[in-house]
Here is the input.
Amino acid sequence: MNIKEALRIYFIMGSNNCGSHEPLDVLQQAIDGGITMFQFREKGDDALTGEAKKQFARDCFRLCKQANVPFIVNDDVDLAIEIGADGVHVGQDDLDAGVVRQKLGSDKIIGVSSHTLQESKAAIEAGADYIGMGPIYATTTKLDTNPVAGTKAIQETRQHFAQFPIVAIGGLQADNFAPAIEAGADGISIISAIASAPNPKEATEKLASTMKEVINDA
Ligand SMILES: Nc1nc(C(F)(F)F)ncc1COP(=O)(O)OP(=O)(O)O
Ligand SMILES: [Mg+2]
Here is the structure.
């Protein structure tokens, strides 16, 4: 699979990001709207735990598998292994990427959050397949996020690693993500712009059509 293409419209969701919508319906609409990868991120207030979390993960994975959308699990490496997910995303405070690679093997996708060139270098050396960089803009989705970073860290990492897959994250919407791509990101990670949209399918279609224009201009 081409990781850079998978990163184009990378939807991240948990059951507590969907407001009054039914989470599995939101995911199906996002798939129908053209997301290119999905991250199962069940954490924070009112997040599911235990067997309910596992079952929700299996249900999401089934929808992604039917559509050939890669399914990534956030933080929970054991859950990813148990259900046979396509990969894992870990942050700086989660399990070390090198340990994750040992547990998952070479054929799974490992994503790592990075905020600086130093963290990017470490993630790449540890065997990451992509890095998530941000937050580009202020976000209310992740309460313990780092300060707003803008696109500077993406530019710095891109200058040192011309081809390494980078996805931007943090407060991204159809009308504001272009600078992240122009700075060198291969794609965008989205939570609330899809999960909280009145029509998640149309919101995804808008992001995908805008991405086509931006990528062609970049
Ligand atoms: N979940 C993420 N996904 C991405 C992705 F690259 F996929 F866009 N980038 C960054 C994060 C943030 O990861 P982390 O710092 O561990 O916080 P949390 O576990 O609360 O998400
Ligand atoms: Mg994490």
Q: What stands out?
A: The CA atoms of residues 25 and 200 lie 9 Å apart.
